[in-house]
Amino acid sequence: MSGQTVPADFSGHMLDLDEDEDLEVFSKNTSLADGSSMPNSPSSMVNQYRLEEDEEEQQDTNTKDLFITVDNPESQVTAIETFIMYRVLTKTTRSEFDSSEYEVHRRYQDFLWLRSRLEENHPTLIVHPLPEKFVMKGMVERFNEDFIETRRKALHRFLNKISEHPILSFSQHFNVFLTAQELTSHKKQGPGFLSRMGETVRSVANSVRGLKSRPEEFTFMQEYVEDFSSKICSVDKVTQRIIKEQREYLDELKQYGPVYAQWAGSEGDLGEPLKAVAGCVERCSKETEENNQHLSEVLAPALHEYILCAETLKLQEEVDGLSDRMEMANDALKGDWSHWKKSMRSDLRSAFISTAEKNVDYYEKCLAVWESFLLSQRVEPIEQRDGEDVS
Amino acid sequence: MAENGREELVITDAESEPLAGERSLNIVVVEQGCSLLRRMEICVAEAEKRSGKNAVNMQEMFTVYLIETRPMDAAAEGCNPAPDSLWRRYSEFELLRSYLIVTYPYIVIPPLPEKRAEFVWHKLTADNMDPDFVERRRVGLENFLMRVASHQVLSNDKILYHFLTDEHGWKEVVFETGFQAKADSRLRALSATFRVRNTNKRFMDMKQYSDELQSHTSQLLRARARVADRLYGVFKVHGNYGRVFSEWSAIEREMGDGLQSAGHHMDAYAASIDDILEEEEHYADQLKEYLFYAEALRAVCRKHELTQFELEVSSQDLISKKQQREELATGVVRTFSFKGMTNKLFGQEAPEQREARLKLIEELIAEGEDTVKEKTAECEEHVEKAWVDMQRFAEQKDKDLREALIHYAVMQISMCKKGIQVWSNAKECFLKM
Question: Chain B contact for A367, CB < 8 A?
Fold first, then answer.
């Protein structure tokens, strides 16, 4: 690569800075005002972002044109190692893709590769995080079913987040990830140049940090990210605690029901209602189990994802400490920022709604269980009973 | 809970409410015979703390309970005279019960509420002065009096009447009965259990059942307390959402309001568990009553063992005395006796002495036969009467415990309805996020 094609401006968000195709990409940009590869004026950047916001909204209201699923985790055994392969299915109508359907197989490492590529090439954009390599708490095996399923869901979300992003979804790396049967050849074109540059940039950034005064919005964003990170961690902690308490409650419930059944064994007429109560407790404990599972499968992962997001955002600040590109970096970040905030709000909102709905459902089911017991005892319905109480 | 012959329950503590279980048992059952309850309204209206000197002349705090009584016919005629009342402490109730146990050993005597708080879960303290405990004990004492006063046999007891009406003279009267002397010693009862031979099978089955009832109710009480403890934890932890959502809402623009109000609902959810579990304590009390009833039932079975054993002992005694007579008369020694030995060593005794001894033996045999008759009658009477009361008890138990289970289900339903409401409200708030 020649010096000319070295993208000095890392905020070149409109362009996919793929090392292989730098030249081609640059030459495509003759549509831009001054014909140079990079828009230089901040205002033009802002304009571009406005456009993107419109696009974003268009994407929301129009039908999606890129559908991705991650499923079918399968264990692969080689001489050296064992790992899980996930199937990635893509359906699309985009012209950037040669075909309308793709099926490829990817492992976690491949996802890591994709993300690091995206981050390098778009350092000012917010790239959704991946699930962690391994879980620190507890002895979770890599091949534990729940762990694999949790990871699969997170990988699925990751690809969908990328596909929803107005810029990232057009990344060449993304395309390759979704379409190439063999990823290894693409990977072999090492991280090399750009990531080395990336590291240099970071060290530059670190040195200029504090010397430059940052614009207000940027400080605001920083503060928000710090606060958000701590709040979301708190919510996550509370949620984990609830899951734990509910599990302990469930354990006691499982021992509670059988006590009624055992008692029924030494009773005559009383045996029937005792057995019935044992049955009710058992059914309620099943519902409790389901409710708790829902919490683990829906709310907890969503919160966790945004904890990772917040961590990613904190790192973002380092890059943005670039000296003379800061204004542009600002604007780049701002646009992606509102996209991200919208996304966060929508994701967490639906996770909370889903949790509330599940709880309502849980209580409704338990209610039905106990009402059927009353019915079996040929007791008058509750309304009438309440009427009797008024005296 | 026991049948309440009156419509309203005089409870002076404004905060407490009548139990749901009690309300549902407002049916007046017409008893055969003259039940005290049909003649008199009884309630344990209040509890008060007093201090006084105890047996070792030390200052102590104790609780007294106000018993109010009112003749039934007065209320029926429409005039509402002020009730007679007196104060009693727990130990006096215990004394009454001890008297009843000794005097009516064939009756399953209703139990008193527990002396000390047991089967406590997390929140409740095992403190006898705790107002909630005192209140529940007040209810338990009233229940005890109701059960006794509505019992066909027990309600006619004079001592019971004195207990209810004679504040200071009662103790003297009860001690005058000398019931304490008549009490069976533990040792005697235990020894009977081991050595008795021919017990009535029905009684032995009932004894077995009483063990099972005791074991099952205590297991259930413990399991329930553990579940209550855990449920408390679940609800309270949700309260943390309230705090955290509130903090989070401060940094959010669009999401703030929704989060904040959802947080308030989570606070309400966390707070709701206190009332829920307080009500469940009443259910626990209903179970506890039958835990203690199991002991009373077993006492009746043990009494049978004792009377049967005493009959066997006296029969055996009579047999051996008859044998002795036979030996004296025939001169054939079958059993070992010192007299026999001395005869061998020192020669036979004189005929006059033998005559005297024979006469004595005959007298003892006559006594022995009376004793056997007596013991047989005692045993049979006990079997007959006890069987009747055990049947009555069984029916009462089935009815009461079924009611308790229904009461439990009603409470669960109420809890579910609250849960549905809270989470529906929270959902509305989340929708606004």
Answer: yes
